[in-house]
Model the fold of this input.
Amino acid sequence: MINTVNSLQTQHLDGLNAIIRIVDHNLNLVFKIDPRAKANVLPTSDYRCMVPKPQLQPSRGVLRSNTGEKLEVMSIIQLQISYKDWENQIHLFYVVNSDYKPILRRKTSQDMKLIKFILNLTHNSSAPMMRNETTKMLDKYKDVYEGVGKLPGKCKIHLQEGAVPTLQLPKRVLFAHQEKLKEELDCLESMGIIEKTSRPTKWVNSIAVVHEPNESHTICLDPVDLKKWVQCHCWTM
Done:
């Protein structure tokens, strides 16, 4: 256990920060208040200011920063801190080998009344109006939003010179979904959207099956290799 933090005041520096004075060593430390942090963090440089020759016992614990960077934990210590009516509380601090600013985790910051979470529910009076407008638009353009649309004419895909055909292997489908997938393919065939072929072809594209929350299936063509060789036409508007 190291000293007692008995003086604390907050001010705006570069975000949420707290200046903590450690009386026994006449030392001021600026802690960053991080609501996302799950641990109190103290760099080794600041720890050595309190204890010039610390006996560090490396820990197997793993800490990571908000960016995913792994922090080397040199030791885990206990600090007794006090502030106003929040006194003589002992919390763990992880001593890390980095140049990070000291960090106070959310729980410690809340206990010290440095931050407060407020849940506020608001009512948007414009929501019903927006729903009415959406309903009117869907009714007006039913032919666009209902059924399967079809554009006139035929589309021809132009490939770059030297395009290498690819035969993609079919992706695996869970046994529990195979029957529903077959039903969906048969439905698309009956509607004239797709057709079976027995002729040889240079290109074979796999499909991606999306399982919807309502237990239906959406089938998408996945021509990932074909798209690499497609010529893009630029049309002037």
